[in-house]
């Protein structure tokens, strides 16, 4: 009986050690699985990209009616809006907000989007649809800060366009209350898409 009791006392620490080793192994496996869900540079303290949903709005400083517009690009930046009257004495035409577009954080340099819009220079002439055209451009998204309040497409005379993410004008160049300057390097020139224009005009003829 004493021998049996001694054996039990001697083996007890080993059993405890095995249980502890098994627990550590299980915790290690769970920890490794969690790390697999993180980006490769997370262990170095780099922030993971997050994409927030934001509304889409438009401003029209041009003398043309904007029927609709859409943007598409990387990192969830896809959305659209439209129905903007031409600019007048009171200021630019404005499109109401539509949901939604992805706004990635943080901003990355050289993020480019494809923008497409329907422009009509004779919106009330239902017999002559020759000025109802589809235009496209490649636009670069200006730098924006960490606190944002939506995406804007701004149309200018001469079939030009600029986009921006409103951020309280953190960096001094995202003020939707100020018309883009004529020499703004981020204003893009629109180009007529002949195939889509033909389809559009036939649809509304």
How would you describe this protein?
With 205 residues, the protein is α+β, with helices and mostly antiparallel strands. The chain folds into two domains: 1-45; 50-203. The chain is 22% helix and 35% strand. The chain has two helices and ten strands; from the N terminus they run αββββββββββα. It has helices at 2-36, 194-203; strands at 50-60, 65-72, 79-84, 93-105, 112-120, 132-140, 151-156, 160-165, 188-189, 191-192. The strands form two sheets. A five-stranded mixed sheet has the order 4-1-7-8-9, with no helix packed on it. It has a five-stranded antiparallel sheet with strand order 3-2-5-6-10, covered by helices on one side. A hairpin with a 3-residue loop joins β7 and β8. The radius of gyration is 29 Å and the shape is globular. The model is unreliable at 1-45 (pLDDT under 50).
